[in-house]
């Protein structure tokens, strides 16, 4: 694909969808991006209080490939570790091509209050760089909380960039997305987890999502999900062997076609 056209398309899509702002990893992606009340390492990019679900220090790397362009991809890395009732997590992600890329790095602090409530605060650094035009940067914070009502129901809420920060540029106003998300999970059985969420980006319509995870056998989890606005379908699976986990997901996007991604995680 012509590089000039690719760059033009990236600029338009990034201003509307802000890909690099949220890389939720294959597990949460396959479940329809319903991260409000799902506990996972990649909750660092959704509801950061979800990292309180990890049992030991965990490191993961993620790679997503956009099939419509040979160069366009996303890469991410995440790490979280517990200490007593506290958790610390760091994440870094990059999206784009040589001529245009976005990066985001952050550090999160989460705390569990008993067996039911957990809260988190995360600080983020953002950068957009365009070849021959330079780079612009910005900072934001995310806040989140989860509450285990019982062993079956969990509720969650998160706000990304509640202070409505923008990138440091004097020529064009570029906003860092402010996203409010509320949702819940329902453990229908020892094998089935259902997740749902309502998400509102201040600049977009309200989105509603539904996701499901099914434990086929002890080592294999199957996942599906969908969102309403924009309407997307997601599918994926996870393989867990001792301390190693491999997760794969495919997202169906109206503009970009099918977007596969894979992550490897290791619990120390």
Describe, in plain words, how this protein is organized in 3D.
The chain is mainly beta. It has one domain: Porin (Beta Barrel), CATH 2.40.160. The chain is 8% helix and 56% strand. It contains two helices and 14 strands; from the N terminus they run H-H-E-E-E-E-E-E-E-E-E-E-E-E-E-E. The protein has helices at 3-17, 25-30; strands at 58-65, 73-83, 86-96, 100-113, 117-130, 134-148, 153-160, 179-187, 192-201, 207-217, 220-227, 232-241, 244-253, 257-267. A 14-stranded antiparallel β-barrel has the order 1-2-3-4-5-6-7-8-9-10-11-12-13-14. A hairpin with a 3-residue loop joins strand 5 and strand 6 (134-148). It is globular. Mean pLDDT is 88; it is low at 4-21.
Question: Which helices and strands, and how do they pair?
Answer:
Elements: H1 3-17, H2 25-30, E1 58-65, E2 73-83, E3 86-96, E4 100-113, E5 117-130, E6 134-148, E7 153-160, E8 179-187, E9 192-201, E10 207-217, E11 220-227, E12 232-241, E13 244-253, E14 257-267
List keywords for this structure.
single chain, 268 residues, mainly beta, Porin, 14-stranded antiparallel beta barrel, 2 helices, 56% strand, globular
Tell me the number of structural domains.
Answer: 1
Strand order of the largest sheet: 1-2-3-4-5-6-7-8-9-10-11-12-13-14
Q: Could you say what the CATH topology is called?
A: Porin
- At CATH level 2, the architecture is Beta Barrel
- Which range best describes the helical content: under 10%, 10-25%, 25-40%, 40-55%, 55-70% or over 70%? under 10%
How many extended strands? 14
Strand content: over 45%
Q: Report the order of strands and helices.
A: HHEEEEEEEEEEEEEE
């Amino acid at each position: 694909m012509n590089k000039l056209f690719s760059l033009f398309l990236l600029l338009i899509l990034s201003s509307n969808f802000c890909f690099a702002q949220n890389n939720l990893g294959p597990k949460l992606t396959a479940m329809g991006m319903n991260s409000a009340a799902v506990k996972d390492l990649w909750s660092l990019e959704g509801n950061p209080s979800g990292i309180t679900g990890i049992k030991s220090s965990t490191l993961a790397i993620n790679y997503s490939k956009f099939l419509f362009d040979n160069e366009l991809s996303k890469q991410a890395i995440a790490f979280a570790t517990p200490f007593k009732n506290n958790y610390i997590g760091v994440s870094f992600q990059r999206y784009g091509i040589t001529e245009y890329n976005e990066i985001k790095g952050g550090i999160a602090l989460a705390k569990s209050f008993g067996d039911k409530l957990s809260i988190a605060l995360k600080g983020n650094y953002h950068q957009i760089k365009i070849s021959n035009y330079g780079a612009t940067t910005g900072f934001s914070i995310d806040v989140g909380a989860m509450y285990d009502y019982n062993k079956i129901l969990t509720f969650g809420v998160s706000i990304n960039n509640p202070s409505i920060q923008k990138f440091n540029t004097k020529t064009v106003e570029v906003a860092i997305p402010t996203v409010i998300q509320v949702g819940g999970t329902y453990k229908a059985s020892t094998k089935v987890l259902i997740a749902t969420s309502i998400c509102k980006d201040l600049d977009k319509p309200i989105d509603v999502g539904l996701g499901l995870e099914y434990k086929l056998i002890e080592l294999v989890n199957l996942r599906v999900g969908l969102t309403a606005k924009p309407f997307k379908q997601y599918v994926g699976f996870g393989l867990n062997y001792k301390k190693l986990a491999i997760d794969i997901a495919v997202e169906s996007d109206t503009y970009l076609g099918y977007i596969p991604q894979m992550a490897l995680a290791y619990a120390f």
